[in-house]
Amino acid sequence: MRILGLSGHFHDAAAALVVDGKLVAAAQEERFSRVKHDAATPLRAAAFCLRQGGLGVGDLDAVVWHEKPLLKLERILMTSLSTFPRGATAFRRAMVSMVGDKMWVRNHLVKRLGVAMDRVQFSQHHASHAAAAYGCSPFVDAAVLCVDGVGEWATTTMWTASPGKLTPIHELHFPHSLGLLYSVFTAFLGFEVNEGEYKVMGLAAFGQPRYREQLDRVFRRSADGSFELAMEHFCFHYDPDRSWTPALEALFGEPRRPGGPMEDRHRDVAASVQALTEEVMLDLCRDLHRRTGQSRLCIAGGVGLNAVSIGRIVREGPFEEVFVMPAAGDAGSAVGAAMLAHGVCRDPMTHAAWGEAIDPEAARRFLDDGGIAYTDHGDEGIAAAVAARLAGGQVVGWMQGRFELGPRALGQRSILCDPRDAAAKDRLNARIKFRESFRPFAPSVLAESASSLFETPAAGAWTRRFMTSTVRALDERVPAALHVDGTARVQEVHDADLPLYARLLREVGERTGVPCVVNTSFNLAGEPIVSTPADGYATFLRSGMDALAIGPFLVARESP
Amino acid sequence: MHPTLAKVLFWRKKGDRLREFAETEAFGARDLARAAEQVTDPWLRRQLIRHAQDEVRHASLLGEEGAPAPARSLGGAVAGEASSGEAGIDLGQMGEVEFITFVHEAEKRATAEFAMHEQALGADGAVFGSILADEKRHVAWTGHQLQKWRDAGRGAEVDAAVRRMRWGRVRDAWLWVARRISLVMSTIILTLVFFLVVAPFSLLLGRRSSGWQPVPETDLGREF
Q1: Which CATH number goes with the domain that contains B37?
Q2: In this predicted complex, what is the ipTM?
Q3: Chain A closest CA to B168's CA: distance in Å?
Q4: Do the bridges between strand A2-7 and strand A62-65 make them parallel or antiparallel, or are there none, so unpaired?
Q5: B204 lies in a domain?
Q6: pTM for the structure as a whole
């Protein structure tokens, strides 16, 4: 069977192609359109997936959309009704958006993609998440937890999964959502919703959870693991322009203005929300373990990208092994929609490089025709050339192979530097990524050396392949890769999965004694991660990077 | 330009206008860099890369002076308002002639607009100084490329593209007006629907229960 999964119309639109139960290609629309978190129908990503699979639209057995549009419309309508008359503006704007456009997904795909009407299918949003988490995991039998902002109605779901079968246990409904609570406080702290959640997580380490008691008044937890928001503090369900009411400000004070000064109070609010999130996620996992008796856990949904929470689940949770879908957010639901329609197939994921590849010949033409000076180190020599520069304190852009699915750069489209230099962190934030000083960077380390630098709990082995959990550092040899609390979002690199990146780390290790680099995504603040040589070169020009490796070619800031 | 006329023309805050210009330049850089990958003529590729580099610099200069972008609201996203529109121009879809014609016409408009802003903003418009010099060069190189195609016997193709661009501007202006009118009409109609038709149902609606709920069975063929 040949199935194309698609997600979009909220954020992070993506396409994924599954052929005979194997994932062939998956990519986010933003990597082609260059619009960060692009929510548009992922036509460019779909075209890439078909190209990668050597298929035409007519060859597809099904095209599966990641959610049920009419169920989503029902949620929006019912919410407007339940908040009458305050929901008038939300109703009007939602009707324009949904009835005028997003409700007609089937027709849209028929018209724009050229697929036959009867080949278009729709999976429930959380079922898509669950199928992606399980289908990409290495586990045959597992419990599955999905936690995000909202899909159609569901905000939190629990499942059990076995080959060919995904069995729902139960779900929590909108507006009671851990993901939305986190997003409300992301906006409260002056950050962009669906973009700044990582910033809240990073900021949390600088504060104290002094607002936990206040949070318990707006987020009520039950003994059975469920929870509800005290809605008198929120208005996101009926006001399209605001997220909270004055009642929330009475508890937490004035919200921070975007770009405004960061005060201790803001850090403490971030720490409190983060602490609550960790506690709730742990509670959900314990409850799921109790209900299923499973020893392995798969996680998806946007909250699954909260690496600090996953770190605690790995360390303190009841499961023996944990897997988090690397594209846990909506991009991954395209993969899940396709896997679900394929009868809940499994294709264990050992890397995230499912996007478009760098074509060395096209890259050479681009450099030659653009009159850009470069050195060709060949496939064998590029790792050593870059390692020498990293060991010398330089910051290097690294573009190799197929780009990653999901929000993390995992050694295909990365900016790298030496983690031993503590000052590198500030330099990267200020001069290269142009982002907030409190945000941490993550290390990539050779898998066989990881335990000499970091705690490596067995339950988190699969999360460390994809940087989806945090661990504590064992010493301070890599200060630039550690957050202020001494933790790091480690990527363990295995030779079998990413041979060139592993070679680079080995070359770095030979020069520095530590086979580890700081690895941050190859983009500037507010932009998608680069995909093509032109994207990479355009970003290189605008940042303070010292060199850029595109396939075997090295472009240096100075002449080669 | 007369100061009063300038105030009328630039009634919005300067920071917001500069931010919008910066965003346009940044998007332009992205599209030009992408186009550079797709063309086969080395001269054209070099021009596109240099042009993209200029746009990047402009975006940076204008961005430094511009106001920060407003934050997106959670409520709008929850109500399904995330954009599903397309963005940017793509040489792969448009073809070389249409793409360069579009860039040429856009650069001409930008040159005129930036010159007007420089004049109207006085000392505050200094940022446009070096940008204008680049814009004039961009008009020149794209015009040169169009002339090269004309000389190569592709004049009809170029002229057709120019006509399409100019008619496109008229069509865009008409669509803009039509959208504004439809927005006003939909606001009135939907508000009436909400209060007259939807309201009675709200009285019948009980509070949705919180806590764990069973997961309904659905099949993939249904949209609900």
Answers
A1: 1.20.1260
A2: 0.80
A3: 21
A4: parallel
A5: no
A6: 0.87
